[in-house]
Amino acid sequence: MADADLQPKKSKKAVKAKSPESEALLLALAENRVAIEGVEPEIDGGRFAVKRVVGEPLTVEADIFCDGHDEIDAALIYGPADVDPSKWSETSFEFVENDRWAATVTFDRPGPYRYSIIAWRDLYATWRDEAKKKRDAGKLTDLELIEARELVTKAAGSGRGSKADQRGLAKLGERLEKLAEKGDADGQYALMQSDEAVSLLHAGGVRTNLSRYPGNVPVWVDRERAAFSAWYEIFPRSQSGDVNRHGTFDDVIARLPDIQKMGFDVLYFPPIHPIGSTNKKGKNNSLTPAQEDPGSPYAIGSKDGGHDALHPELGSFDDFARLIEEAGKHGLEIAIDFAIQCSPDHPWIKEHPEWFDWRPDGTIKFAENPPKKYEDIVNVHFYRGALPSIWYELRDIVLFWLNKGVRIFRVDNPHTKPFPFWEWMIAEVRKVDPGAIFLAEAFTRPKVMKRLGKVGYNQSYSYFTWRNAKWELAEYLTELTTEECADYMRPNFFVNTPDINPLYLQTSGRPGFRTRLALAAGLAGNYGVYSGFELCEFLPVPGKEEYLNSEKYEIRAFDWHAEGNIRDDIAFFNRLRNDEAAMRDFRSLAFFNFWNDQVLYFGKRTKDLSSYLLFMVNLDPHHDQGGHFEVPLWEFGLPDDGTIRATDILGGDTLTWTGKVQHWWLNPQDRPYAVFKLTR
Amino acid sequence: MADADLQPKKSKKAVKAKSPESEALLLALAENRVAIEGVEPEIDGGRFAVKRVVGEPLTVEADIFCDGHDEIDAALIYGPADVDPSKWSETSFEFVENDRWAATVTFDRPGPYRYSIIAWRDLYATWRDEAKKKRDAGKLTDLELIEARELVTKAAGSGRGSKADQRGLAKLGERLEKLAEKGDADGQYALMQSDEAVSLLHAGGVRTNLSRYPGNVPVWVDRERAAFSAWYEIFPRSQSGDVNRHGTFDDVIARLPDIQKMGFDVLYFPPIHPIGSTNKKGKNNSLTPAQEDPGSPYAIGSKDGGHDALHPELGSFDDFARLIEEAGKHGLEIAIDFAIQCSPDHPWIKEHPEWFDWRPDGTIKFAENPPKKYEDIVNVHFYRGALPSIWYELRDIVLFWLNKGVRIFRVDNPHTKPFPFWEWMIAEVRKVDPGAIFLAEAFTRPKVMKRLGKVGYNQSYSYFTWRNAKWELAEYLTELTTEECADYMRPNFFVNTPDINPLYLQTSGRPGFRTRLALAAGLAGNYGVYSGFELCEFLPVPGKEEYLNSEKYEIRAFDWHAEGNIRDDIAFFNRLRNDEAAMRDFRSLAFFNFWNDQVLYFGKRTKDLSSYLLFMVNLDPHHDQGGHFEVPLWEFGLPDDGTIRATDILGGDTLTWTGKVQHWWLNPQDRPYAVFKLTR
Fold it and tell me: Mean pLDDT over all residues of chain B?
């Protein structure tokens, strides 16, 4: 009861003089009597935002404690970043253990939010606890009851809680007074310990030594597609079905029903801008192109325009608008490439020579990403004469396409452009559309990759493409789903890209394609397929992880329903992802024991277990693999010899598993994966 | 070479309009192109200071990286907290691995410091790297050499480095020009790759995109005794040698030579203030004292004065001054108790009733620390009417004793007083004496204990007293020496205290006392002994971890050289601690394998291995224990079958150990510990 201040006294002796700065420090420190520390998640001390999507729980944990032995309480306060903290919402913290507390909130609209924590000494809870102990020991006196009435009187006058709470507290006080007048100590005690009193004093009780975490921790809330999406990548110019005819947006429109059948939700195009002719690349990246070779779409810019123009052979802006609209009708959002680089023919080179690095001989150095060379490309720079003008120009290009209906951007090589540029540009675009999504194509060092997530990228290409063994998949996924990066970096598991024809797929045959699909679509929130994968295309440039006859340098034509395609597998996984809520929570991933190093066995689930999936994937494309595995009965509160129903979702059978250890077998030719849904 | 800006160009097209706030954000972000993150050590984002002592290395690590592929460099900048950062010192970071860099500094005076990190793109290093690759491929051209000369010209005009560096750079430029005039490409290349050029451009080269970590991380530097001390605790009133005569400061002075022989460096007294008579405690904490009982010294305050007075029977302030001086001559610093609590007779109660919690019946609640009750004590509070006056009063009491020559304060129960008070008070005292040392007596929850270290305590009582098993000692010490808390919390391992008569010692006999001494003195930087321990005093209040006939409630007399004392062991360890530099670095502690769960086996060392000690301690006071153990030959770069010399410091023999596995035996009666010094 140390702060009830029932009997305030006056000093009878003057205190000593003191300096103003010493007093200012004293008062500032005294404000925060309750310690609030170890706050998670908070990225780099609040320098960067924690990421969530609409509806996804944010659980905040903190160490919260005070000197002495009194009870404390705490609340999470949060609100949109542009709303004054005094008007934020509040939700209670719950004690976990060892001075650790936790609170969970969700956000229902995309945009920037912030949160903080308040904590206080809860004198009423302390009273309840001490009074009970004293009463149990037969030592409760009138003093404690007087103190209780005082607590209620102060709460009634605190201004906290609703009007009903204030009225309720006033009435509670009156009832206590009446009981006191009657000398009914038991009655007062019982009333002060009642649920009603607990509820009223929680709502309106004075918050003694109210302390506040100094940080206002930023949270960025995305629309769900930022964390849960299935991408399909095509070169529009290869969609005519005829290698001799440049594809058009109308050709893409004609392909939409067929793509829709596979169940993707994002349709992504490499650059669709005019292509330069200087140092144009020929087939297979040759430096000796034929006249009719289309060149690499990454050599952006020609007399027909630059990053805000369309390649004339693809169609007009009207065609493009129609494509966006038609794609939407087929459940597909269009994503385009944002590749900040220029063909030597790009209009910028004449209009903005200050954006380029001119060498003493009057040339501009072409792009390199050792050992790769890009003779048809020059890079801009971002500082000196280019600061800030190119920052604006690039932002405005993104805004231009946003205005054309594109809300998803796959960004080429972002790690070779300054982090501050991305942080600023993405923030600027989000002011216009908080639903804009940026995918970072940065196959680079781990910390660089993570930094791009911190500065704002919604999704990131990952190392998945090169993780094939069971142990490395488990290790990598455990990092991605459980370490701090899970709060700011969302991987997108591409099974292949125009730049990456994985070694594994070059030798795995069709079973390996199904295996990698099952891994990407089953493990990740975001995953992607570059077209041709469904046809098990694998021919490499010999000795390299590149595709022979790459679409980057020539127009291709494919029979999208060729024998041996795995469209059914793709459709199955995309349907599963849409039907089962478990698939939407990347972080619910858990690995379980399967006693075979060639079988990856993992689960995904909703918190309430209403959607609980188990996946088994045979990593060996050449041999049958199987063995015993552990059914996570414990997650359902079942004993090791318990019984659970497992529906083989593909096979359709419903099995009954009794006991924790079961066995299964996966034939790569037949079906290299299995998916079970568990129900009690 | 992206920033050499050799051929600046002007824009030929206007850039778009933009908002001032957008531009401000752009420019602010652009300032820090190089990412600097993951900075360690930094406590709670710089909210609290990292602790070091004079001469102790501070190694700062950080992830430092930039976009693109250019070389970067970084420096640690640091200086006294009151010096403007522009005038700080600078030391180079070295690359470690995976974008991690490290730099080490030491501080030569106690006080507050700060550090930060700067990093930049190193165009010269990039040039060196690229030019070498091109030359090796036979592709170095005049362009690269022109760029090199430009780098030197800019460095010569940068204003960085000494005047000699600037002159050297100017000359380097001239030599390059001359070589260029002669068309000597090889000569220019060789000169630009020379050590001379590396050194000059390191000193004077332009720091492109100079970026700065935003934090100025606080570091508190103590004098060495804060981290390395051996405490001996006595009740001055028990130093007369006669239970019927109250000891005096002069009696303590007479004891100094004998205490000095044991080699301690801090002599600590429980409160030496006037003791109240209201509710005075009798022998063995009874509530029925005899007239002549002295009362607990923790019941501070009587008509003779309060916290700034001396208990009259101990002596005068002149006597106390003499004691401080004499103690100094015997290598002992005096530490006193700072116990913020009052006997009901304390003058404050009348002078400052606003500092106490008055109950409705006009009484003040007495102190409790359930289940312990302190009927002779009332507590002050720190808020409401006591804010800020009691804060000043308490600060001034510490300053009062500082003025009397006391620089070390053992603080009683700091966890029941507000953290902000400690943070403010300790900061205030340090302004007067940066060598003041505060030891927190807080046997409480782990996070509370750690918080006291964060807010400024130099030393902390620890859980050592209750860690007896091998696994729990290893686990606890590993936490203390390797986790983040090692940067702000320094444990003081007391083997016993007037409040704690450990169960282990109640049944261990003399061997157990020697074991616990070896553990405390061998493991910790700071350790302490409450007198009586050296006599193997163990009689408990039955069933409790308290001493029977505790000095807290009565005057005792001891025969300090009684048969069976372990003064020689104490003297040995204190001598070892002073002689061997390894003992001064608590964090150099490492545990090694001894294949016996009753033998704790650990090492301490200096970085250069010139002081390398191995300790073996038999934890079982009743049986011989021994077995095979691993000699850490690898730390000396020796193979598993290598040979090393081991001096048995107590026995005096020098052994030759060949091979990693050796064996040893410890007889608890003979000597339950062994200490070896390894030399190649």
Answer: 95
